[in-house]
Structures are given as structure tokens and as C-alpha cells.
Amino acid sequence: xxxxxxxxxxxxxxxxxxxxLFENVNIKFVPGHCYGVIxxxxxxxxxxxxxxxxDVEPTSGEVHIQKxxxxxxxxxxxxxxxxxxxxxxxxxxxxxxxxxxxxKEALYAKPDFNDEDGMKVSxxxxxxxxxxxxxxxxxxxxxxxxxxxxxxxxxxxMSELTGSEKVRVLLAQALFGNPDILLLDEPTNHLDxxxxxxxxxxxxxxxxxxxxxxxxxxxxxxxxxxIADIDYQNIQLxxxxxxxxxxxxxxxxxxxxxxNKKTEEKMEELKSFIARFSANASKAAQAxxxxxxxxxxxxxxxxPSSRKFPRIRFNYQKMPGKDVxxxxxxxxxxxxxxxxxNFSMDVYKGDKIAFLSKDPLIITTLFQILxxxxxxxxxxxxxxxxxxxxxxxxxxxxxxxxxLSLIDWLRQYSEEQHISFIRGYLGRMLFSGEESEKxxxxxxxxxxxxxxxxxxxxxxxxxxxxDEPTNHLDLEAITALNxxxxxxxGTVLFTSQDHQFIQTVADRIIEISPxxxxxxxxxxxxxxxxxxxxxxRDLLYKDMVKx
Length: 547
Fold this sequence. Notes:
- There is one protein chain.
- The protein has helices at 45-53, 86-91, 95-108, 115-130, 136-146, 163-175, 193-205, 217-223, 242-277, 284-296, 360-370, 406-411, 419-428, 445-459, 475-487, 499-505, 524-529, 531-540; strands spanning 9-12, 15-16, 19-20, 27-29, 34-39, 62-65, 71-73, 181-185, 209-213, 226-231, 234-239, 323-334, 337-348, 352-356, 378-383, 389-392, 463-467, 491-495, 508-513, 516-520.
- By secondary structure, it is α/β, with parallel strands linked by helices.
- The longest helix is centred in the middle third of the chain and has 36 residues, at 242-277.
- α3 (95-108) packs antiparallel against α4 (115-130).
- The two termini are 47 Å apart.
- The strands form five sheets. It has a six-stranded mixed sheet, sandwiched between helices. The chain has a six-stranded mixed sheet with strand order 16-17-18-14-19-20, with helices on both faces. Strands 4-1-6 form a three-stranded antiparallel sheet, with no helix packed on it.
- It is globular.
């Protein structure tokens, strides 16, 4: 392939270790487009980005990036920069600029500064100006502010920031300095809705090449011009966003199946003619002609997708009454920080409520109180007599600190102990055969979530409480969970950063800060766009330090 475009990326036949990730792949990423990389867990999405970035050397094949192109990568190690100031960490995203800055500083600080040093500094100052170095701090500060890092923290050490703040700084680092190729692996993780919207606008206006892995369907719809679909060691490129890919890929599959059906019918027709007339001298020529036609007909090899959708369905045993939950004047302070102040609400049968906050700890704390895992400082929590609840915590690691097999792990939470019953639920969560025998303490993040969902299904509760359930799930599992909660006719209390998840599940919104709360029966998008609600939200967070 050849092109005069400024930042083309080519790939062919990439292997990684003993595993073939991409076979006979020939793909080009070009400037001005945003490519969403999708595929089942383990398909190689993150590895693809690491190979392009040069962090992983392919066993065979090549990745070609035009000379001089600068690649920026969203770093995943949140502790790697703890000893550096925040503003400096952002500028590190432009390595050459940062190296020039530090080399200048070292030379100016020399006690025996000489003429040779002066010549070198002059060269560095020229390069520094060419790299727009004089604007570096103001540009970095602007990015930090846009991402919700207050000015007072720009010169603090990274070690002084919260985990959520570090995520935002590393995102600013990747976006800094207008890179030619921007590689983002799950950039919306741990971001609130407002920050995600800002990032979407940034990427929509970004003029260079973006390659992004994300499980946020709405985000992929809003920013992507193309979808790179990884399946069976191949990458198929589709023009359009995620929703277009979902429709187009299904249509292409259906067209292939219909064409194969027509081909099979034609083959049967030809075989029948040949069988009837091959021994007939007057029809021999026609039979030979049809045999030649038959030999030329082939059926297209249609592989089913390697993607697997878990079969998630929530049912409940006990019929709920009208009044599910009454909360009155709830107060809670954690580590000296006021999170809940006189919070009150009533929940009724069938309510599906999305809880929002700029401080996710507020929602986690509320859910822990509702689940009985944490005591409030004061206030009242009264569950209806017919309410049965099942809780999905954001941090589930404590549940899996055991060497029990998955069968024995799930059996702990089931009244029915028969192995076929337990295996049935594990199978629905994609743990079949030997997979169901593995130890609980070796599971990946996504596998733990699927086990927790199996636990909740077995509980058959009529109230489901979810704290960020889509974290660690692939798109297929998110879709399955999303649809299951739409169909569930019990009560759901949940928080999520997934726009589509909130929009399609919630019929009520409650947004909380230490200053108070807002209740609304708007759908999510209308709630976020409504001018009156926006005024209320501004008041809700007035004088509150943004997390």
C-alpha cells in the first residue's frame, strides 16, 4: 500500500508469542478518522494498540508508521508518575518537548556554564520554540481544567491526587500537544458523564488519527467514523459508527446466508438433472454441461462470530408490594467528608432509578447502606415487607479471595445444590466444561462480573442494586445485561457511566451531592439537556470541589 497521507498505519500478519492474533491482515488507518476497535474479550484489542505503539514487538509481520509521526498513548499505570507534578506529567505526553525542557533546565543550572553550553542552549531554545514550548504549560493547564482538575492541584504531586483524578491527568497527557496518532484504551473508564461529553467533542474536532478501544456504545456512536471489527484473527473495517456496524454486519451475514441457500438449491437442481440424464445419450452433453456448472459453484464459508452473548435473565420468587423502600433524612460522613446530608426518597414497585453524582463515592456509600453493609450516621432506611434485594458492589474482589472452583463458589449462594443446576447458571454466563472448574481467585475482571450476575440471578430478588455493573464487561455482555434489565419487571437501583445503559433502563433520575439532591422522571438525555434541570444541577454542585 502507498499513500501520501501524513499518518498512515499499515499492518500485515501480526503474531504475538504463540498466539496468532491477526492473520493475513492488511489494513490502513488514515488521518481525519476515528477508528473504534471492537471484538470479544481476548480477541486482541488492547494488544493491537500496544503493537501499533511499539510497546509489543510482533513475532512476525510488520507495522509501518510514516517517519516523524508522533504517537500518544493513554497510559494505564496510575502510579507511574506519582513523584512528578501534575502539570509536568501532562507535558510528558510530548516526549521530545519534555526532553528539550529538562535538558535546557539542566544546562542553565550548571555552575560552570560555558560557551559550548551556551551554543547547545541556543539550539534547544530554537527547537523549544518550534515545538510551541512557550505555550506548553498554559495548554496543559487548559486540558486539566477541561477534564475537571482544579487549578490548585496543577502543581501538586500526582501522588496527592485521587484515583479518579489520576485517570484524568493521564488522559490529558495523551491528548496534549496534538499528536499525529492517538491511541486510547478505554478512555471513558472512571469519567463522569460531563467529562465524557467533553472528550467526545475533543475527538470529534481532532484532525489526526484516533484509534480507540471502548465498551461504551454511545461513545463509539458519537466519535467513530469507522469500526475495526476483530474476529477470527481478522480485522474487518466498516465505515460508520458502532450502531451502523451492528446493522451492517448482521445484514452482510444474512445476505451471505441467503446467497448460500440459493447456491445450495441450484446445486441440488443440477445434481438431480445429472443423476437423471447422465446415462441418456441424447442428454449426455447437457448433463456434462451441468456438471461443469456444478463444479464451479461453491458455498461461502460463513463462520459464526466468535462473540458470545451471556444469557442473562432476572426473575423473582416473591411478588413485591407497592411500597418497596422508604429512606428518610439519611446522613453519612466517611473519613471526615460529608457525603449524604438529610437524603430522603421513596421507591415503588417497578421503579428503575439511575443514581448520578460527580463524586461516585456518594452513590457507592448509599448503596452499601441500602444493602446493609454500612450503617448510616443517622436517618432511617425501611424496606417493604415483601422486598427482597440483591446487591452488585463496585469492588467485588473480596468475594473471590478463595480457591474454590466456580461450581463450589456459586453453590454457596444457592439453595438448590445439584451440580447440573449450578452448571446451568455458569453455562449461561459462558463458563462451560473445564471453565466451570477453574479457581475463583484466578478470574479476570470480566469473569468476576459474570459470576456476580449468576449469583444475582440465582437469588431471584425483586430489587436489584447495581454499582457500576458494566465495568470490565465486553460489549456483548453489556448488551445482554442492558436488555435483561429493560425486560425485568421488578425494581432496579443502579449507577453507571454507560450513556445508553442509563437512557434505556432508567425511568427516573436521582442526582446527589453533599449539598442536596435532584429527583426527576425525565429520561436521561432529556434530564441532561433540559435547561431547568441544568440550573438545578449547577446549584447542586455550587461551591463543591469537583472530584
